[in-house]
Structures are given as C-alpha cells and as structure tokens.
Write a structure and sequence with these properties.
Blueprint: H1 2-14, H2 21-25, H3 28-35, E1 38-40, E2 45-46, H4 48-60, H5 63-68, H6 76-94, E3 99-100, H7 101-120, E4 140-142, E5 147-149, E6 160-165, E7 170-173, E8 185-192, E9 203-208, E10 212-215, E11 224-232, E12 235-247, H8 250-265, H9 278-283, H10 288-326, H11 331-340
Parallel strand pairs: 1-3, 6-12
Antiparallel strand pairs: 1-2, 4-5, 7-10, 8-9, 8-11, 11-12
Helix pairs in contact: 1-3, 1-4, 3-6, 4-7, 6-7, 10-11
The structure holds 2-acetamido-2-deoxy-beta-D-glucopyranose (NAG) (3 copies).
One 2-acetamido-2-deoxy-beta-D-glucopyranose binds next to loops.
Amino acid sequence: MWKWGLWVLYASMLFNPSSSCYQCFVEVEDSIRLCWGHVLTEYNIRNVDSCFKKLGNIFNNNQKVIEAGRVGKGYDQKLKDILNAEIMPMAEEFDKKMNNDTVYDERLLTAADNFIAAAFKLPRASGCFPPCGFQASGYVYNCITCQYDSCEFPLDCPTKNITVLENNRTQMRCDVPFPLPYEMKVVWRFAEEIRTQQVDQFEEVTVGIDRLYSIPSAGLRHQGTYQCEIYSDQRSLVRLYYHLIVIPQVVVGHSELQEIFDLSLLPGGQIVPVPGGWSLALLRLPPPSLLTACLTSLLLLLFLSLGILHWWSIKKEKSDVEQAEDDPNSRCPVREIYLLQ
Ligand SMILES: *[C@@H]1O[C@H](CO)[C@@H](O)[C@H](O)[C@H]1NC(C)=O
Ligand SMILES: *[C@@H]1O[C@H](CO)[C@@H](O)[C@H](O)[C@H]1NC(C)=O
Ligand SMILES: *[C@@H]1O[C@H](CO)[C@@H](O)[C@H](O)[C@H]1NC(C)=O
C-alpha cells in the first residue's frame, strides 16, 4: 500500500507532458529504490516526493538530455544502457539508506552529465529531407514521447520541368537527398504528351536498378511526364516526376540546309574573279593565216553541203514524179515539194 502510494506520486511527478529520457528508460521500481532514503538536510526528514521532483528537474527539464537522446534508428537500446549504467548503481547504493539531498544533487547531476556525454557519441539520424519520400533513416528518437519520430512527407515529389532541343540528348536521374536502402528497385514510367502525377496515366518503361534515364536524341514523341518510383521490400519509398518539353528545331534546320546549299554551289564559298583571266583570252585573236584557212574551209564545207542538198533534191523530185504517175493520190506532196523549192 505504501509502495503503491509512492508509485502514484512518482507517476504524477514524472509522467508530465515534458517527460524525458529518464522516464523512457528507468523502471519505476528502480526510481523508488533510488529515492527511498532521500533526506531534506534543512529539516532532517526523509522525503521521497522531493527526490522525484529532483529527478524531474535534472533529467526532464534538461534540454541537453533531450538533445542527446535524439539518436538514429535502433539506438534507443543504447540510450537505455547508458542511463541504467548511471542510475542502477545509485539505486543499489541508496536503497534503504538515508542520504542528504546534497548527496543526491551531486550524484544525479554527475549522472546526467555522463549520460549527455555518452549519448551524444551515438550515431545521429541524418534527419528529414523535405519535401518528399518515405525516409526510414530519418527516424529520430524522441525522449519526450519515448518514440521514434518519422518524417511525414508525401511519396510524390513536385514535378520538375526539363526542356531539350529536338535531336539533343537529355537525362533524368532518380536521385533523392536522403539515404536509400542497398536493396532497391527502380521503375521508370512515362505519360506521353501530358503533364500529370496521376498514377493511371503512366505506362511502365523500365524496371531495374538504373537510376539514370537517358534519351540520346529527343523527338517530339518523347514529350510528356516521366515518373521514377523507388521500391524497397515491396514498399514504395518515393516517386519523382519530370515534365519534358522538346523544342522543335525547324528554324535552325532550315538555315543550316541553306548554308550547305550555298557552299556546295560555290566551292571555296567565294565569288572573286581571276584578274586578266577570261576577258583577255576573249580579246586575243589568232594569226591572220590561220583565220584565212579556217574561213576557207568553212566556206568549202558550206558549198559542199549546198551541192549535196541540191543533188539530193533533184534526185528526190524525179523519184516523186515517177511515184506520182503510179499513184494519183500522192500528188499533193509533190506539189508541196515544188512550192518549197
Ligand atoms: C546530513 O546533513 C546534516 C547537516 O549538514 C548532517 O548533520 C548529517 O549528518 C547528514 N546526514 C548524512 C546521512 O550524511
Ligand atoms: C513548369 O512548367 C509548368 C507549365 O508547364 C509551370 O506551371 C510551372 O510553374 C513550371 N515549374 C517550374 C519550377 O518552372
Ligand atoms: C544541342 O546539340 C548541339 C549539337 O548537337 C549542341 O551544340 C548544343 O549545345 C546542344 N544544346 C543543348 C541545349 O544541349
């Protein structure tokens, strides 16, 4: 009955809204043993109540103790070990023995300092990295709630915009600022043309471990939203979004073609007349003897052709007349030949 009364007293002292690592790790039984012989020096009377208050002041309302307790996932057991290593020997020592409160003050303050020093050496959680993703490693022990705090962010990250010139290369990375488990799966999905975060709009593109998505030569068909999702142990950890806009290269392509056309027309790409070239060559005349010979041969050739033509026409005329005598219907061509002559 007496013990139960102490328990209630203890509970009312320690389990207040601003609790601390002490109440997370030290059993009530041990606290009662520890405070059993607490003597108020001023009045020389035993007072357990004020011992509990002291514990509260030294551990619970001590911001340094709470900070020291903000260890990474899995290290709460280590915190418990450190604190019990300080408190348990005292509980053994002080149980059923009277001790002045000055002794308690000194011993408890030393215990708190030792706890702070040792707990700060434990691995810290890297913290929470906003704005998205399930961050398991971001869990931090909280000595006020005696629980790990999780980073409460949505799985979906905000969409990032990327623009690329048509035919140029572009890359997207499924990178997050927080640590990821070693075993994981990366799924890339694509929603053509649209800008979206709606799961049902996407189609799976690749599944594997590749966190880099490359488009060697962007075309208009690559335009749309890309989603990468990271899984570990069947659990989704994060979803990243990239909205890709491909800028058509029509104008650039046209001027490039024009340039190539111009260059192929004029080798060297310049129009510079050779000095004294063509004009002089045209003005220079051959010697007169050569000119005469040329003209003579040209005239001879002309006369010869005229002679042949004349002979041929006479011959043709004769044969046509002979033919016309045989066939009366073929007179017109004959008359035509006469007229031509
Ligand atoms: C507690 O302090 C008082 C006054 O200083 C002293 O007389 C007494 O012996 C001390 N008791 C113990 C148990 O140390
Ligand atoms: C991305 O583009 C969309 C329109 O396509 C625009 O509303 C948004 O503000 C852009 N975001 C950034 C970060 O530029
Ligand atoms: C696109 O590609 C061309 C050559 O292929 C390069 O000169 C240019 O810098 C690239 N532009 C961008 C924005 O990467």
